[in-house]
Amino acid sequence: MTRAKDIANIISDANFGGTLDVAGVLTGASLDISGNIDVDGITNLDVVDIDGAVDMASDLIVSGRVGVGISNPSAYDDGADKLVVGSTSGRSGITIVSSTSNDGSINFADGTSGTAQYMGYINYNQNTNTMKLATNAGTRLTIDNNGNVGIGTSSMTRFFNLNDTGANPNTAYFKSTNASGGAGLTAYNDSGQASIFQMNGGSYTALGGANTLNIGTITNNPVVFVENNTERMRIVGGRLLLGTTTEGEGNADDLTVANTGHCGITIRSGTSAEGSLLFSDGTSGADEYGGYVQYLHSSNALRFGSNAVERMRIDSGGSIQLGSTVNVNNSFLTINKLSNNIGKNGIAFCTSSTGVALSHCLFQNPNGVVGSIVTSGSGTSYATSSDYRLKENVVTDWDATTRLKQLKPSRFNFIADASTTVDGFLAHEVQSVVPEAIIGTKDALDADGNPDYQSIDQSKLVPLLVKTIQELEARITAGGL
Prior knowledge:
Blueprint: E1 2-4, E2 8-16, E3 20-22, E4 25-33, E5 37-39, E6 42-50, E7 54-56, E8 60-62, E9 66-68, E10 83-85, E11 103-108, E12 120-125, E13 130-135, E14 138-143, E15 149-151, E16 160-162, E17 182-188, E18 194-200, E19 213-217, E20 223-227, E21 230-236, E22 239-242, E23 255-257, E24 274-279, E25 291-296, E26 301-306, E27 309-314, E28 320-322, E29 333-335, E30 358-365, E31 368-375, E32 380-384, H1 400-404, E33 410-412, E34 422-424, H2 427-431, E35 438-439, E36 455-456, H3 462-478
C-alpha cells in the first residue's frame, strides 16, 4: 500500500495498482487506480478512473465530468454532462436513500444561501410518502401517498386537484394547432363509458363540426347538469329535461320542464320588441313560422297564427279579435269573416245531444242571467229573462192600439246594399213609441266624430202587437167595428 499523510502531494500522472490512502490534499492531472481509494481530505483531479471503491470523509471536487458506468460523459448533452450515470447495455438508475422520517431531494440551485440553494427541487418525504416538485423555491405539484395529484395545492381531496391562486381567469389552457383535431378532455370510467369537453379545429368534421365546442358523452349516456349537489338538467336521447328525469308525452318530449310547485318558461324581450314561440316545418320563408304565438311589447298584444297568417289577437285591454287586428266599436269580441271564408259559418254551437235542451250561450250581468241561446232536438230559442219574480208594477189594461198606430212601417234599402228592398222601421221613429226596442240615440257620434248608428230589436214590438190584436178582437166581439 502506498501512503502519503499530512503532506500535499503534487502528481502529474500517477498509476497505482494497490490502495491509495491520502490524509491531506491530493492534487494531480491524472489518477488511474485499479484498487481502492480512501481520501480523508480534499481530492482535486482533472481525470479520475477508478475500478475499485471510493471512501471519502471530506469533499470530492471534480473540475471535469464524472461518468458512473459511462466512460465518455462528454459525449452527452453539454448542458447535463457533469455527471452521467448509466449503462449502454442494461438498466440504469440513481437511488437516494433517506431515513424513514426524513426527505430525499434533488435541488436546482443558482446560489449558496437562502432559497437560491433550492430554486427548483424534486423532494420525497419518507415520513408522509409524498413527492413534491418546485419552481422558484415554491412547491407547484404534489403527489400524496394515495397517488392523488395536486397542482397549486398540497391538500388533495380528489385524484386530480387544480388550484389557481392568481387572477388568471383561465386556470387550465388547452390548445391544438392541428386544424383537423381539437383541444379538450376525454374522460373514461371503469366500464369504458366516455365523456368529452372539446373545442374542434377549423377543419374538424366529426361531432359538432369545425370551430364548435363539444360537451357531452361519446357513448350512449345522458349528460347531467348539477347545481348545489342536485340535478337540475339533463340531456338524454336528444331530449332536454329541466327539473325532471322523465320526458313528457311522446309527441312533445323534446323539451320537458317540471317542478313540484309552480312551473313555467319566461321569454323576455325588449320593451318595443317581440317574444315568439314558432312552429316550423322548414328552414326558410313562411315555413319557419307556419304557426306561432307572439307577444308584441310595443302594443302589449298577444297574437296567434296558423299557416303563417295571424288568426286571433288579444289586445292590451283584453279584447279579442278573430280574423281581425282591429277592435271594432270597442267590442270585447270582434269576429271578422274573411272573404276567403265565404261558404263557411261564422260561429258554430254544437252538441252531441239530440233530445235535451242545452244552453249554448248565456248572457249575464250582476243581476244574474238575463238571456240565453238554447237548442232542443229540433229548434233554437233566443231567450231573455222574463220570470215573474223579477218583475213588479205589472199592468194589463193599457192602450196598445193607439201606440201601434204611431208606428210607421216602411220599405227601404240600406245604402251598403242598394239592390235589396226590405220592410222595417226607422229606429228613431220607433224610439218614442217602444223605447226598449231601440239601442242608441238619434244622430249620435262617437268620440272620433263618426256616426254612432242606432239599432232595433224588433222582438220588443211583439207585446205591443199582441195587445193590439187582443183589443181588436175585443172590439169585434163587442160589435164595435
